[in-house]
TrEMBL record:
Its main location: membrane. GO terms for biological process: lipopolysaccharide biosynthetic process; response to iron(III) ion. This is Glycosyltransferase RgtA/B/C/D-like domain-containing protein. It is a multi-pass membrane protein. Keywords: Cell membrane, Glycosyltransferase, Membrane, Transferase, Transmembrane, Transmembrane helix. InterPro entries: LipidA_mod_glycosyltrf_83 (IPR050297), RgtA/B/C-like (IPR038731). It comes from Paenibacillus sp. SYP-B3998. The chain crosses the membrane at residues 12-37, 43-62, 69-88, 123-140, 152-171, 177-195, 202-223, 235-256, 263-281, 386-413, 425-441, 447-470.
Length: 492
């Protein structure tokens, strides 16, 4: 009983941390976005543009359209926009995406020799997405557009999941807003032409999260679906363990404290079941690949300290750099290189005051800079007025991201005052956990999109509060005032 009396403490502490995150993100985003506006009224332009966009979005979300009609119209619009982009912009894979795509083509021809290449020996966890692409190529042929169309399917599927999640966490209005803004978000659209593993993995991770907040551990079988979704998601992007830890923390800090004693055993048992299902998926896939000769090791990170080495590099502010890359490859891959990298990590953690400066710079870059999906999609494209298009897209993304932070802040300020909607804690926990992890490891602004669905979910309540407050104010102003009680004047 005493524990339940203090069950509110983790929630309030989490919300306060979230308020600080959204406040600093909003400031960093604003400072980045105004550099793209060359007229003198920067602040006014940004503010008016933001309010107009939100006003239109709120009006659409609050429309009298039925759920089915709203979803149908928005799905058609979202699909059409992405399809036009995919057909118009012929993005070719580069960097890691090129390696995985070319390996998928090789695998589709029956050769699994790519598994012995240096890239996949160092990063065997990339094999899962490579084989996914290979499967699509075998089924539908080699046209690259097939892979991009599946990007579209999973991207739009994520938009639907955001509707279902936000409607469950908050209300119908919030579900509509979350889906609408994600469907219209610039990086969400233009990244569909890039052969990244993020579309599929994001869909699976948030599918698992939907099962958590839908019926969660009260359902007889949902724990299996949670474990499967997170386990499969990890096969395509190695973030499953992060979501699994966030789920366990959510259960221990927020669910268990509010669970009647007689159900505690069931909750803990199903939580353990999620972990077991997740592990089974990983082991089954790993040993299948080993048995078929695709790889000789499990789908794990064979260079576990590399991300920390890069993330703690102060001169390069935690971003990938050739200096570190060229240094570590001098040492034999495996135990020797891992020991060298561990030593580098320890040395870089030694100066505590310098770490604070590094973390501050990394936060500004990771959470304040513009999204680079524009460059991934358009970087090698030769079209007329490309520079103008890129500036427009960057400005659109910058304003939209600023809005996410602004209304995320508003949302948490209201949630701090009200002891309502406890399920939001799962997504705030994921978001803040992701922030902490990237304070330590390598950062790329592209990685931000993996956790952006959490921002869309959380900020939806801020728009709801803003919309209902404005609506209430307008109604009160339009109410006719009571007439004076003086007797009417008459001619005598």
């Amino acid at each position: 009983m005493l524990i339940k009396q203090f069950a509110w403490i983790p929630t309030k502490a989490l919300v306060v941390a979230g308020i600080l995150f959204f406040l600093f993100t909003m400031i960093c985003s604003y400072l980045n976005t105004i550099t793209l506006i060359v007229i003198d009224v920067k602040i006014i332009s940004l503010f008016i543009g933001a309010i107009c966009l939100i006003g239109v979005a709120a009006f659409i979300a609050a429309s009298s359209l039925s759920r089915r009609m709203y979803l149908s119209i928005l799905l058609l619009v979202a699909i059409a926009i992405r399809l036009v982009w995919i057909l118009a912009i012929d993005t070719q894979p580069n960097s890691d995406f090129q390696v995985m795509y070319e390996s998928a083509l090789l695998a589709a021809q029956g050769s699994v020799s790519f598994g012995d290449s240096e890239y996949f020996v160092r990063w065997p966890y990339q094999i899962g997405f490579t084989l996914y692409q290979m499967l699509l190529i075998k089924l539908f042929g080699t046209p690259m557009i097939i892979l991009k169309l599946f990007n579209l399917v999973f991207n739009v599927g994520t938009a639907v999941l955001l509707y279902l999640i936000a409607a469950k966490v908050f209300n119908e209005f919030c579900g509509r807003i979350a889906m609408l803004l994600f469907a219209m978000y610039t990086p969400s659209i233009i990244l569909c032409s890039v052969l990244t593993n993020q579309h599929l993995s994001i869909f699976l991770f948030f599918l698992g999260s939907y099962f958590i907040i839908h019926k969660g551990l009260t359902s007889r079988y949902h724990w299996i679906f949670i474990g499967l979704s997170y386990g499969l998601g990890h096969l395509f992007r190695p973030m499953g363990s992060f979501y699994l830890l966030a789920f366990i923390a959510y259960v221990l800090l927020f669910k268990l404290l509010r669970t009647p004693r007689k159900f505690v055993g069931s909750v803990l048992g199903k939580t353990l079941g999620v972990v077991v299902v997740y592990i089974i998926v990983q082991q089954l896939f790993s040993y299948t690949l080993i048995a078929t000769g695709v790889t000789h090791s499990k789908l794990s990170n064979n260079e576990p300290y590399w991300k920390l080495v890069v993330g703690l590099n102060q001169p390069h502010e935690g971003a990938w750099n050739s200096e570190d890359a060229n240094y570590v490859v001098q040492y034999a891959f495996g135990k020797e290189r891992n020991q060298i990298e561990l030593q580098m990590v320890r040395e870089r953690l030694a100066d505590k005051s310098a770490l604070i400066v590094l973390f501050t710079k990394k936060f500004k870059s990771m959470w304040g800079d513009g999204d680079p999906s524009i460059f991934w999609s358009l970087g090698d494209i030769d079209i007329e007025h490309l520079s103008v298009l890129m500036v427009i897209l960057m400005l659109t993304e910058g304003i939209a991201y600023f809005l996410l932070a602004l209304f995320g802040l508003l949302s948490l300020l209201f949630l701090l005052r009200r002891n309502e909607y406890p399920k939001h804690a799962l997504f705030l926990l994921m978001l803040l956990g992701y922030v902490i992890v990237h304070a330590l490891i390598e950062i790329q602004t592209r990685y931000r999109i993996d956790i952006l669905p959490c921002l869309f979910i959380l900020q939806s309540y801020g728009i709801f509060v803003f919309y209902t407050s404005i609506k209430r104010l307008l109604i009160s102003k339009n109410k006719p005032r009571k007439k004076a009680m003086n007797p009417p004047m008459t001619d005598s």
